[in-house]
From TrEMBL:
This is Uncharacterized protein.
Length: 87
């Protein structure tokens, strides 16, 4: 049986949600430590996580625009509605 790298299989929305949930649970546990050094480290890690998610979101938007152009011939994809705009 061939050995498969787990990282190659983690590509779906559920996997992203699972990894995000795990990170949030770890942050929650760290916030309960009430130690100043741990809090500072956690804040730095949270800042890094936010920056990484923002970079990934920007890359996803570029891919989405490219896919939209390829399928419709349009020059730009419509904006994704914010949660406030979704009924």
């Amino acid at each position: 049986m061939p050995t498969e790298d787990r990282r190659e299989r983690r590509t779906g929305d559920r996997d992203v949600a699972r990894a995000h949930g795990l990170l949030q649970r770890r942050f929650r546990r760290l916030r309960d430590c009430w130690d100043e050094d741990v809090e500072q480290d956690t804040n730095r890690l949270a800042d890094e996580a936010v920056a990484a998610l923002e970079r990934l979101g920007a890359r996803a938007a570029l891919i989405e625009q490219r896919a939209y152009r390829q399928t419709t011939g349009a020059t730009r994809a419509p904006a994704i509605p914010t949660t406030k705009e979704i009924p």
